[in-house]
Amino acid sequence: MKTFNLPKEFAEKWLVALKTGDYSQASNTLLDASVNYDSGDIDHIIGYCCLGVACSILGANDDELLNKDIIFQMSNIPDEIPQILAEENSDFNLVDILTRLNDGFTSMEHINLMEQYEHLWFNRLPSNTTEKISYSFKEIAEWIEHNVDLI
Predict the structure, then answer these.
(1) Is 59 strand, coil or helix?
(2) pLDDT tens, 72-84?
(3) Which of 26, 73, 93, 133 has CB 3.0 to 4.6 Å from 68, enough for a Cys bridge?
(4) Cα–Cα distance between 5 and 149 in angstroms, integer?
(5) Torsion on CA atoms 108, 26, 150, 21, rounded to nearest 10
(6) Beta-carbon neighbour count of residue 131 at 10 Å?
C-alpha cells in the first residue's frame, strides 16, 4: 500500500512529461520566466517546477503559472488537476513533499518526513546535515512511481 493516490490517466501523462526532458526545471515557482518590462508578456520560459509541469500538460496558461509557488495559488486551476495537488501546502502533504524534492531538502527535513511516513522510498538523500539536494524531473518521476498509487 502506497501513501498517496493519483488518477492513473493524469499521472501517466505527467510522468511521461517529467521523463522526456521537454521541460526545463526551475525551483521555488510553478514557472520561472523572463518577462518584458513594458508589455508584461513572457519573453522566455526558463523552467517549470514539477507541479508547473502538471499544470502545463493540462493546458494551463503560462501567465497563470508565473509568480505562483503552488497550484493552490492559481485563480484558474485546470479541472483535471487532482485535488491532492491543488491543496494548500502543509507539512508533509504530497504538495509539500514534491515541492521539497523539486526545490531541495536537507537531511533534517528527510528525517522529519520519515517520522511522518516511515515507508516512503527515496532514491537519493543528502549526505550530511548541511547539504541540500534537489531531485531532477526524472528522479521525481521515479519517486512518484515508488510512493504513489495510480488508481
Answers:
(1) coil
(2) 999 999 999 999 9
(3) 73
(4) 5
(5) -130
(6) 12
Collect all residues with Cβ–Cβ distance below 8 Å to 41 and sequence separation of at least 6: 35
- Name beta bridge partners: 44: 34
Q: Tell the residue number behind the cell numbers 522529519, with chain if given.
A: 112
**What would the grid cell of residue 66 be?**
508565473
Name beta bridge partners: 6.
150
Residue 123 corresponds to which cell in the numbers above?
532514491
Phi, psi torsion values for 82, nearest 5 degrees: -60, 140
Q: What is d(CA 149, CA 151) in angstroms, rounded to the nearest whole number?
A: 6
Q: Report helix, strand or coil for 24.
A: coil
Residue keyed to cell 500538460: 57
**Could you tell me which of 97, 40, 30 has the C-alpha nearest to residue 68?**
30
Here the cell at position 141 is 518521476
Cell of 36: 518584458
pLDDT digits (tens, 9 = 90+) for 85-122: 999 888 789 999 999 999 999 999 998 888 989 899 99
